[in-house]
Every structure is written in C-alpha cells, then in structure tokens.
Amino acid sequence: MTTEIRKVIADDSGGDSRLSGVGKKGAKVGAGYDVKGTRNPIAIVRARGPLHLLANRTKPHAITPKARRSKRGAAALSMPDGSYRASAQHPGTRGKNTWRRGVDIGLPKALRILRSSTVDAVKRGLRA
C-alpha cells in the first residue's frame, strides 16, 4: 500500500517527494506505516510531512510577513526575484487528490497479497 502511495506522491511532487517553496530546503513528503498489536496486529498507514499542501485544494488567500524586516525596518516578504513586498495574494490551488489516488491503486494490490498469503497459510495448516 505505502509503495503505491509513495509512487503517486513522487509523481505529483515532481519526482523527488519534496515540496519546493516550503521551508528552506523544501519539505519532504511521503507515506509510512505503524504496526500496532501482537495478537491481532494492524497496520496504520499515514501521510508523512505536509502532504495536505499537495493533495488538498486551497482557497485564494493573502500572505503576510511574520517577522522578516527589510532594510527600511518594515516587515516584508522576500520574493523569488530578490525584491520585497508588504504582502502577496496567493491564487489558491486545485489539489491533486494524491492520497486518495494512491489508496485507490494500492488497496486492491494489498488485498490481493493478503488474500493469497492467508490462503497459503490455511493450506499449510491443513497439510500439517
């Protein structure tokens, strides 16, 4: 399951599973799992990193500076061209439904693997 989700995340993020423009080096995103329990174990599949920024739609919104100061002392946003602005208007994003598409691809494969391993275990038990 996580392998298929990671493939979709890599495709949607440009191949490197990093979101440029988030943090100083780009935020790493992915999928992982935790196994809980020993008698009846379950695996919990989770998103890693700020995947919601890639997967979900965002509305248009204003971006204002936190505490960065320009040479004149006023709070300003640093723009990619090296200039500064008091604020910027973000147009919003459509969202790529990354998680849902990964689950839709991975779930049938995971179920097929689980069924075949269960059938194999029952066959081994019946032979013993």
Question: What labels would you give this structure?
Answer:
2 domains, two-stranded antiparallel ribbon, elongated, 128 residues, alpha+beta
Mean pLDDT: 89
The Rg value, from CA coordinates, equals 22 Å
Strand order of the largest sheet: 1-2
Number of strands: 8
The outline comes out as: elongated
Strand content: 15-25%
Number of domains: 2
What is the rounded distance between the termini? 32 Å
Helix content: 25-40%
Low-confidence stretches: none
The SS-based structural class is alpha+beta
Major sheet characteristics: 2 strands, antiparallel
The total count of helices amounts to 3
**Secondary-structure element string:** HEEEEHEEEEH
Written description of the protein model:
With 128 residues, this protein is an alpha+beta fold. The chain folds into two domains: 2-58 and 94-123, no CATH class; 62-92, no CATH class. Helix content is 35%, strand content 22%. It contains three helices and eight strands, in the order H-E-E-E-E-H-E-E-E-E-H. The strands form four sheets. A two-stranded antiparallel ribbon has the order 1-2. The protein has a two-stranded antiparallel sheet with strand order 3-4. It has a two-stranded antiparallel sheet with strand order 5-8. A hairpin with a 7-residue loop joins strand 1 (18-19) and strand 2 (27-28). Helix 1 packs antiparallel against helix 3 (98-127). It is elongated. The chain starts with a helix and ends with a helix. The model has no long low-confidence stretch (mean pLDDT 89).
